[in-house]
Amino acid sequence: MTLSRVMEEIRKERVFMETSDGGVTLSGGEPLLQHDFALELLAACKREGIHTALDTTGYTSKKILTGFLEKTDLFLYDLKHLDDAVHLKYTGVSNKTILENLRLLDKEEAQIILRFPVIPGINNDQDHLKELIGFLKKETPRIKRIDLLPYHNIAGHKYQKFNLPNRMKGVEEPGEKAVQDLKLTLEKEGFDVKTGG
Questions:
Q1: Over the stretch 18-37, which tens digit does the pLDDT of each residue have?
Q2: What is the pLDDT of residue 180?
Q3: CA distances, 169 to each of 121, 123, 152, 159, 165 (Å)
Q4: Residue 46 contacts by C-beta under 8 Å, 6 or more apart in sequence?
Q5: Coil, strand, or helix at residue 150?
Q6: Rounded to whole angstroms, how far apart are CA atoms 94 and 85?
Q7: What is the pLDDT of residue 106?
């Protein structure tokens, strides 16, 4: 679709945005894979006074991400694991760029909601939780809001259908108690924590 066509569709929703204090959120997949169009779209929204949000993993170059600072009111930033080897094992990419870009956004005083998928046996153990809290307090002290996203395996059949390796095969969904315990721990550390998102 062209930029003008997308903006036509967005304008149709303007009344709902105004009554809900909403706006436009680009997500995916990873919207930064189409960074040129994404940036044009957010710029067009900003020109019309529409709140903009970008749901991203931050897995992009510093140059690309910096271009979004003035056009993005809110970054919904996914952080899956701090250990690079574990991150590589389950996502297929290093987390070094992701962490560098998160530090950059925090330093530039961007509005950030950290989105943390709760994945049993992978990132919700006490050691990783302590590491996460330490990282956030030391490296990104402006981040106060964390959305916990309980892992679900509803996409498991898609890996089979497309004959792709499923790195998450056998991983169970977290129970409600595990998510609530994690929420309470983070709240005690001073974070504003929501479940879902």
A1: 899 899 999 988 999 999 99
A2: 95
A3: 12, 15, 11, 10, 9
A4: 52, 70, 71
A5: strand
A6: 7
A7: 98
Cα angle 170, 121, 87; round to 5? 90
Which residues lie across from 149 on neighbouring strands? 117
pLDDT of the residue at 66: 97
Q: What angle separates helix 96-107 from helix 126-139, to the nearest 10 degrees?
A: 40
Instruction: Output the six-digit token pair for 187.
Output: 């709240």
Give the CB-side neighbour count of residue 70, counting CA atoms within 13 A. 5
Q: With beta carbons less than 8 A apart as the criterion, state whether 57 and 35 touch.
A: no
Residues of the chain with pLDDT under 70: 197
pLDDT, position 61 = 97
**Can you say whether the dihedral through the CA atoms of 106, 100, 70, 77 is positive or negative?**
negative
Cβ contact 43:85 at 8 Å: no
Residue 141's alpha-carbon distances to 48, 62, 105, 109, in angstroms, are 32, 20, 11, 10
